[in-house]
């Protein structure tokens, strides 16, 4: 157990992997043009209408240059390349675009020696933080998405602002030796600013190259695992900085 605790300390910058936007060249160019201060309201409306007319699906790809931090521990570098999912796009009456990802398609790489490091040193194996399904009905209230993973929100075509509600369950393991109580994490991944008690992040809006940087500060609650509560100093803040790309079709 002492080895496990020492390894967990090295892996202290856990949490959230999630997701975010980007677009095809046509959609991204429209977003970039729409972000100029001189853009008229009528032009912004045309952009939203065009996006709604031409795009009904979205493909999310998470990228390598991400970061994670929890409590007062140092910030981890997190390589989320290879993750993502697919979703639907619809226009709202206010001109924003609704983006809803299918939980069954979402894949977020685990936080382990392959994907995360601190000061260039990988998290020591066998430590692993995986996103796991919650029990059916355990805090889920979004129809059939009782899988325990949620990613949905809005894109403003006139500015490139993205706000995505994120909900998932995280599980610490150290091989067969230790399995912590699951952590349920809820936050809003945004291209704007996100603030908590201990952590703060600033994102970057959807760019012409189809990339965005989303941030989210979550308040992580206490669990039934006394060691995990003490180790992470729960309740506490967790920060996710997620670089991602969205392609529309």
TrEMBL record:
Name of the protein this chain belongs to: Lipid/polyisoprenoid-binding YceI-like domain-containing protein
First and last residue of the signal peptide: 1-19
The scientific name of the source species is: Chlorella ohadii
Q: What keywords sit in the KW lines?
A: Signal
Report the PANTHER family cross-referenced here: ATP-DEPENDENT CLP PROTEASE ATP-BINDING SUBUNIT
């Amino acid at each position: 157990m002492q080895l496990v605790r020492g390894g967990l300390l090295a892996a202290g910058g856990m949490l959230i992997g999630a997701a975010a936007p980007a677009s095809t060249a046509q959609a991204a160019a429209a977003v970039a043009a729409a972000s100029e201060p001189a853009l008229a309201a009528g032009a912004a409306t045309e952009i939203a209408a065009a996006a709604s007319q031409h795009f009904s699906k979205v493909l999310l790809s998470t990228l390598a240059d991400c970061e994670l931090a929890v409590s007062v521990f140092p910030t981890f570098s997190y390589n989320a390349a290879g993750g993502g999912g697919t979703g639907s796009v619809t226009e709202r009456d206010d001109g924003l675009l609704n983006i809803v990802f299918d939980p069954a398609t979402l894949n977020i790489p685990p936080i382990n020696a392959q994907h995360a490091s601190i000061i260039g040193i990988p998290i020591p194996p066998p430590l692993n933080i995986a996103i796991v399904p919650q029990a059916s009905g355990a805090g889920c209230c979004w129809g059939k998405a009782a899988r325990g993973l949620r990613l949905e929100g809005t894109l403003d075509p006139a500015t490139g602002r993205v706000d995505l509600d994120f909900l998932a369950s995280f599980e610490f393991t150290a091989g067969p030796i230790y399995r912590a109580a699951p952590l349920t994490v809820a936050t809003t991944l945004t291209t704007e600013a996100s603030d908590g008690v201990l952590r703060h992040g600033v994102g970057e809006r959807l760019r012409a190259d189809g990339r965005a940087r989303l941030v989210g500060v979550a308040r992580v609650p206490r669990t039934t695992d006394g060691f995990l509560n003490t180790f992470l100093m729960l309740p506490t803040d967790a920060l996710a900085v997620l670089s991602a790309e969205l392609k529309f079709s």
